[in-house]
Design brief:
Chain lengths: ~290, ~290, ~290, ~290
């Protein structure tokens, strides 16, 4: 899946009709692009909609980014496309938010350092200082932004201002604060949260405790884009692990933390590799 | 797990205190029982409660069922036990309820015939006649009991009367009718239902459609004992299967039906092998 | 995944070079085909090789099968393609071979009857008569062909002659006979076998017994195309299930049979839906 | 699973016969022990053998370790038991061996630090210095012991002497050296190795490369006790992860490293919690 050479990736969504694939692949071919990955999907519902992710080698491709934009725009308009382009040699910048729990952060940093996650990390922000040493170990700038209930709006405004222009997307790696709508609006489909349950089960607080009380036989974790509706944004990745009557709530927390970090890492990888398209509060993952 | 020779199984639940295991194992030893399986659990909560499942060979054991009952009762009273005893040579009698869907029924019948499920099947009851040929193929008596919304109470009373004394527990193998409280009360913790979602997600109707709309990345199934609260009885078994944006609701139904039959079969096996203890609307599975 | 309307599917393999996707999608577009599914893969090894599966609606496509063949051949020659075309309205014909074990056969027949496997079943052949009633239940012609060690070659020649022209591919649903090379040669990459281990572990006889003796913690099953090297053909599908010290060899057989039927069914589905390409004794599965 | 209060755990193996459980539970009860966990297993083979793990609270138990040894020995002799006793308040000492790969080590250290693995780590030994900073970060003594092919015996003798009396068991966390028989003999069933394949598939070198070449659809990892036969010691834990034709050998390495660390951690946890009994080159895991 990791591609050694630089690639250009197009993500496209438009009403379905004949000729889209031919047009796009011709466009790439005419400018000497060599396709390395391609995936598409059409909804089979009333209004058919077409989705595509197509990657081609940057080497040999004859258009500069500006030229590509200019040359592709007429095609996009003809097919009423929503589209975006990404260059693999320009890693996305991921701002990470944490509170006190370290398991998701440590997994992200470790995978990032060994090259599994192709991204930059311009900052780690926390409402506590506990995880600062971990950030330092990986040479990532750490900033402490206290958040209090009474001053939440002002606190978040300060954070929003501080990070302005610094990050392409945000990762809430068990950040135990709810973001205000104005904050969420600033990063549409660009804030990834990990919720420690198999959504839509156990929306909200204390999912492990509630899973224990309900006596479920599997617990899970869900990575999703944050929207204004708590735990109801588009789901990117989910997984579960088996549990039984011998597991206390503390055991569920321990087992679940393994699932959380795995699921969050998957979601971040999909996002950094431009494998996610959002449509009608759901995701298409071209993995 | 299947034990070739007849066994006697005790299921015990009582307040925890020292000496329970010693007392029970002495009791078995004194009457020449040879223990083949044993499992126990203690809750670590405020009031500690002790649970045990212990199986010993019937061959060589010197007490008849009546004598066992008489000899064990004083022990049970001393420790304030809830207890039950089961003889493996007397299979439980499982009454099956179906509507039109065949996947769970076919799996139960096939496993039953090949000896995986140690039970008798005195009857299959359905509010439709579609699955009668399947019952005939396996030589299981099939009875058609129409149920209508307007006459539900009377309809269920007729069924309840008909099955009286014929079954030890009931399996709702995708029986698409809600049972009235008076019916449920007649079989406490003895009606196993399969719900086609990962409870507590998607309680109620059309879980696959709702899973599709929510865009989950896993779908599941849950086998539970029926109580008066819809889909809220003690969970016996659960499992999930992966899905993605390419799956239509019909695909989810197809994938899910595999999980449903696997989960229902597991739950039925646990029940027939006396591996389930219910406590505070949760199950302990001694598998 | 099931597509309600008839589709045409191209499977293509050729040396990688720019322009392949554009050429193919243009070809389809020029003849009014509407692409519904498309997947591709390029090896990143020294000699790059390109693989593609592309499906488009038959409705509206302006070429007859003969015309398609004539029109596409020059393209195929230009790119040195190996290619095949399949029409979804013409189901593949699957000949099934069994011996005495019923679990794989019952699963195939049940899924086939409910429409999960889009194929015809012209015959079931067995070296025993035990499963004839099962074939009759599903109205599939059953033929008894005894096979003996001493007469194996002649026995297989008779079978080969009998099935000539009747089947597009063969399914060995726990057929406990080894096929002679001349037989295998007649169906290249068109005989699907289920082996009851996680290959390459436990090649050959008695894999469950050997898994028990080795003390593995998971057992598996493998569906693969039959070649002249026992259990070494291209793997199509694999899965595993957890086991532990409490499982006897008989328990492994029981647990494993669930995995076998699931894996075999997956492999058959991939094959019938033209999702499999074979290259260098490995498969590419475009699912 | 983690038990908050100190416990004493007995591991027992002996020929099966009536009265063992009663005798042991009486012994514990008579000295005021309160059983918190108990599991047993009997082989159903020709010579029945009985295995048991039983844990009781140290608090209230009236025997000192010396007294327990003296009092239990006659019982053990009567039943021809192999037995051991472990006190949870005395963590086992785990010596870790590594080479250059960090994923298993980082997972062990992280889980150890957060209290998931109840053990002490007296040293990390490596034939390279690359991972010394990681050891320092967790304040674990790190020792560099170069090993060369020509001097292997002398090298290993020096290590063996150095660690003498310092560790109760050893963890080979991707230690890329083969241990000499004299070394293995010094730690019988006390050296845990992680092999990066699903044993017995791909015994020996380069399992990921060979998995890639064979075209398997799942890759795995196996934790086992080291014996003199390479990769043939008793298996403690195994797991797998799905892969497909898009995965290069490098992808398999990446995916597999997640399975390796999970499987190794499980095996270490079982060992530290005295949940493993070895019999006839297989393990019984009382989890």
């Amino acid at each position: 899946m990791s591609l050694s050479k630089p690639t250009i990736t197009l993500l496209i969504s438009c009403p379905d009709r004949p000729g889209i694939v031919a047009t796009i692949s011709n466009f790439i071919f005419e400018h000497s692009g060599n396709i390395v990955e391609s995936a598409q999907h059409s909804t089979n519902q009333q209004e058919c909609r077409f989705f595509m992710r197509i990657s081609f080698k940057e080497e040999g491709f004859t258009l500069t980014p500006t030229e590509l934009e200019a040359a592709f725009t007429p095609i996009a308009e003809r097919f009423y496309m929503q589209w975006s382009v990404a260059y693999s040699r320009i890693p996305k910048r991921a701002g990470i938010f944490v509170t006190k729990l370290d398991h998701c952060l440590i997994d992200l940093l470790w995978r990032w350092k060994r090259g599994e996650l192709d991204m930059d990390i311009p900052f780690i922000i926390s409402n506590h200082t506990l995880l600062e040493p971990l950030a330092q170990m990986y040479d990532v700038p750490f900033y402490h932004f206290p958040v209090a209930k009474a001053t939440r709006t002002a606190d978040e405004e300060r954070i929003l201002e501080f990070i302005s222009g610094k990050a392409d997307f945000l990762i809430l790696a068990r950040y135990m604060q709810i973001l205000e709508p104005f904050f969420v609006t600033a990063y549409p489909h660009a804030i990834i949260n990990i919720h420690h349950s198999f959504l839509p089960a156990f929306v909200g607080a204390n999912p492990y405790q509630r899973a224990f009380e309900r006596g479920v036989k599997l617990i899970g974790a869900t990575a999703h884009y944050v929207t204004d509706n708590l735990d109801e944004g588009p789901i990117i990745a989910q997984d579960v692990i088996r549990c039984d009557h011998r597991d206390s709530t503390e055991d569920l927390v321990r087992k679940g933390s393994d699932v959380e970090r795995r699921v969050l890492t998957d979601a971040v990888r999909f996002h950094t590799e431009n494998r996610v398209l959002v449509y009608e509060n759901k995701t298409l993952i071209f993995d």
